[in-house]
Amino acid sequence: MPELSVVVHGPDPQDRLTGLLDSLAAHPRPETEVVVAAVGDWARQAAERHAAVCLVVPLPDGTGAAAARSAGAARATGRWLHFVHAEDGLPVGTPRAVAEHTAALPDPDVVDVLLLDHVRSTWRTSALPSPDGPPLARAGRAPLPLDDRAYLLRTAPLLGTRVVRAAFWRAHERFLSDGDEPFAAYAALLLADRVAALPRPAYEDRRPRPESLPPVTAEQRYALVERYERLLDLARGRPAPYAVLYDLMVRDCLRTFVRAGMPEPVAREFFRRASLAAVRRRPEGHPRPAGPEGVRRSLLEEGAYGRYRAFQAANKARRTVRGTVRAGRRQAAARLRDHRYRRALTAPVEPRLAVFSAYWNRGVACNPAAIAARLGELAPDIHPVWVVNAADAALLPPGTDHVVPGTRRYGEVLARAKFLVNNVNFPNAVVKRPDAVHLQTHHGTPLKRMGLDQLPYPAASKGLDFQALLERVDKWDFSVSANSHSTRMWRRAYPSRWTSLDHGYPRNDVYYTAGAAEVRAVRERLGIAPGRRAVLYAPTHRDYEAAWRPRLDLAALADQLGEETVLLVRAHYFYDTGPSPLTGLRRTGRVIDVSAYDPVEDLCLAADALVTDYSSIMFDYANLDRPLVIHADDWEVYRETRGVYFDLMADAPGPVARTQAELTEILTTDAWRDDRAAKARAAFRRRFCEYDDGRAAERVVRRVFLGQDEPSLPPVLPLEDRTPAPSPEEIA
After folding, report:
1. Which of 165, 221, 370, 643 falls between 20 and 30 A from 316, CA-CA?
2. In what order do the strands lie in the sheet with 609-612?
3. Strand intervals (E) in 613-661
4. 703 near 713, Cβ under 8 Å?
């Protein structure tokens, strides 16, 4: 019996089926079967071309999605069923990830539904993150009754994000094969004994252009109310799910009423039906929300169609007036700032003024910080000013001269500074004066595609203005590089006339200048007892995820690694809002959340080993010549959605784990630091630690700020002549 049956079903008027089957055939899995309920002759022919990897169930033209779903499920033999509509898609690696997750459930016979995250595509966008990420991350990994996680009903009602146990399907087929797919999706959760979550994108919801669909009939509008009434019948006697469904019903009815553009008679009848349902189904004592939303609900319950329309018109007029006033104020303030900035541009450039910024004005960090520190030693007459967001200003080191964006002095220093240093880009409006010097330091060695190379990857390039990007790049005078790989990729991703400084990353100097005292001090600050092994887990950002979700069960990993190991967990800085998913683990003392700890170089010095996925921290950490382990559970998805410059699976800096079980085995044996791991790390260091030797900041300062020629700079030491900072084991 296969672990998983992928049941591809339903009509496919836009010819998406071929691509879906091609992707499944490219990565066949022994534990997975593919059943295609092919509607129509051409779909049957497309499926039969993949007969080696799928079972074809031919169905006549006109067969609906629900009937096709049932026909496919009837032929499926897997323990779990994943229904995939023929017009939708599956991210690469999904069947494997789902099958492994279901097989690893502690008691799969009491789990009925595995709830997946998904990405969304339309006719003009591709693979955008869904809003379901945070609630799925909040749900955790332990299977629980829906009554304990009623908020999961707020996830998108897509049957493709509900992987159902085959026995559960057979027991409830009359509900789950309903032609109203959102009803079936909600019913799957309501009827499940236990629900588990897989917080990773494992389904692609593809929405056709609305203009290509048939017009929505009045009866289809009214069916929305009927759907929720049927669902509320299923949830009767269960207060938490019932309350969530009631709120969803009222919300969706009001949104449909306001946005659907229904003819007046249809709108009046829809409002009447929604009003009756809102009154009849309202839970006893259920509070209305405050503010305008509460007013809307009151008017709906009263059936006050005319007053609702008047309220709607008044709100629209009020928003228009407020928007006009706010826009006027913003425009006036922007004009004043621009006037002051333009006036400052007429003053002479100040040759002893340098402006620094890092990570979109987050504070003193990364390569700019290392350069500024060395600048203070080699050229103390040059005055550094940091650009920092108002919220981050309080965290600056004492005595740091800084400006906040939008203030008067901000425009003045940007206009007059001789040197502008950043590890990202300055805003588009910053003018490149002929006698000013712009230094781009970057903030990592590129594994993922960057700059213009993101163009073929919609999930990565969404919202990017590539013409504006190139205009910013044209302002660069110098680009810092840590290795020849980076130099080549920067040339390709950011084509312009800048000069490459093949001097190494200044932030990595500390990996050669720090001694035993510095390593001990960092470990003491972090609370790592002498003799304990510290493993730094530092995953990267994913463009297809809305929020950070640990891809490992950290509590279980800590237990398996034992009392003598401490996990230092650092989330990517893009995920610095909202509650941390690590909150409940901090009390153990063996999982330490270091997401807010700066600088990250300290964490690397403190760690005996690094576990990461695709983060550029691996290239920096390799300078320490300490063990590196790659956890790549979604490599195929990452590679396909973000794009990469080389195959990390073939050129990894150490052992590669594709599952948590594999990672645990590596870390609980000698595989993390054996001869094979050392050989892989040595090859990786030769390739990517090419220019880092402890004197990168000095070379950059002498070249850019002091104007010294390349031959007069300190030469880069050969790799075999460098001595990294001592490891914790060496100083124990």
Report:
1. 221
2. 591-593, 565-569, 533-537, 609-612, 628-631, 656-657
3. 628-631, 656-657
4. yes
Tokens found for residue 313: 């018109």
- Greatest mean pLDDT range, 88-102, 580-594, 673-687: 673-687
Element (H, E) at 166: helix 166-171
- Give the global pTM: 0.63
Let me know: does 361 contact 447? Beta carbons within 8 Å: no
Of 189, 292, 168, whose CA–CA distance to 231 is shortest?
Answer: 189
- Phi-psi sector, 625: left (phi>0), alpha (psi -120 to 50), beta: left
pLDDT at residue 91, rounded to an integer: 86
Determine the Cα–Cα distance for residues 405 and 388; give it in Å rounded to an integer.
7
Cα 519 to Cα 507: distance, rounded to the nearest angstrom: 16
Burial state string for 223-261 with b = 16 or more CB within 10 A and e = fewer than 16? ebbebbbebbebbeebebbbbbbbbbbbebbbebbeeee
Instruction: Tell me the C-alpha distance between 296 and 307, whole Å.
Output: 10
Distance between CA atoms of 51 and 61, rounded to whole angstroms?
20
Which of 441-445, 474-478, 525-529 is least confident? 525-529
Helix ranges (H only) for 104-164 are 133-139
585, amino acid identity: L
Q: Are 701 and 350 in contact (CB under 8 A)?
A: no
The separation between CA 64 and the C-alpha centre of its own chain, rounded to angstroms, equals 35
Task: Classify each residue of 58-77 as buried b or exposed e, where b means 16 or more C-beta atoms within 10 Å of its C-beta.
Answer: bbeeebebbbbbbbbbeebe
**pLDDT surpassing 90 at residue 274:** yes
For residue 462, is pLDDT > 80?
no
pLDDT at 310: 93
Dist CA 612 CA 281 (whole Å): 50
DSSP 450-508: -GGGGTT-HHHHTT--HHHHHHHHTT-SEEE-SSHHHHHHHHHHS-SSPEEE-S--GGG
Lookup: tokens for 277? 């349902």
Give the Cα separation of 274 and 254 in Å (integer): 8
Neighbouring CB atoms inside 10 A of 395's CB total 13
What's the full length of the chain, in residues?
732
d(CA 543, CA 460): 6
Of 334, 329, 299, 333, the residue nearest 314 (C-alpha): 299
- Tokens matching residue 724: 């990294």
> For residue 277, is pLDDT > 60?
yes
Mean pLDDT of 631-646: 90
Q: Could you tell me the two tokens for 686? A: 């030769």
The encoded tokens of residue 145 equal 């009754």
CA distance linking residue 371 with residue 42, whole number of Å: 63
402-403 and 383-387 as β-strands: parallel, antiparallel, unpaired? parallel
User: pLDDT tens across 709-730, in order?
Assistant: 999 999 999 999 999 999 999 9
* DSSP for 209-240, written as a single string: -GGGSPPPPHHHHHHHHHHHHHHHHHTTT-HH
Nearest CA to 548 among 79, 160, 199? 199
Residue 32, SS3 per DSSP: strand
Residue 584 has what pLDDT? 45
- Residue of 495, 500, 510, 496 lying closest to 480 (CA atoms): 500
Query: 3-class DSSP state for residue 4?
Result: strand
